[in-house]
User: Fold this.
Amino acid sequence: MANLLVEIGNTAVKAAWAEGSVLGKTVRYQGEKVMEFIASLTEKQVPPVMSVVSVRDITAEEESMLRSMCQYLILMDTAHPDVLTAYGIPEYLTYDRAVSLIAARHMFKGKPCTVFDLGTTLTVDFMDGQGRYHGGNVSLGCRTRFKALNRYSRALPLVDMPQDFKFPGDSVKGSIESGVISGIMFELDGYIQSNPDSVIIFTGGDAIYFAKRMKNSIFVVCNLGLMGLAIFTDEYVKKNIQ
Assistant:
């Protein structure tokens, strides 16, 4: 039977059923009723194993609810750091980043990787050819930068991500668009140039937007976190449950 995988991020929840390490169709939810959304996925089929990775702590009440929805629950958040220790991933990493690294190790075994997650935050993580983690950086994501400019400067309007932009900008709106988008592109290019031998992986909600604007060879894996969660869950089940 298929296991249910759930990734709770900063702004959205993604879920998928998986047969072993093979990921099925992905569904996305953006709203406040996260537990109700997860419960709706289990109404017709109770998963033998449900793996939940979350950037926020799951409350005791929520954990109880999740356990009632499946036969066995694997929970990964800051209150449950032990499940990833065997992978040599430091506990300070959020678990969405951790499972993305597991996927990158699996997909590009034997090759150094630089993993960019372009979402609410922009995270960059580095691994060598042996899959050892060498640290990472965190900065503001694209839409977060637009919101920060509007919030902390009374003169600047709130701007959304443009379909295209002019460089340099020729208006207030155009200058904000060009400043934020070009700034991120320069940032990405700097990381890429400093790691010329790495496989470059983009994931997250803005991955495609930036990948098509870069000149480098880039692998875009939109569901990298869920893929890593599927791999982790399959290995965990084989070692600890079967």
Q: What stands out?
A: The first strand starts at residue 3 and ends at 8.
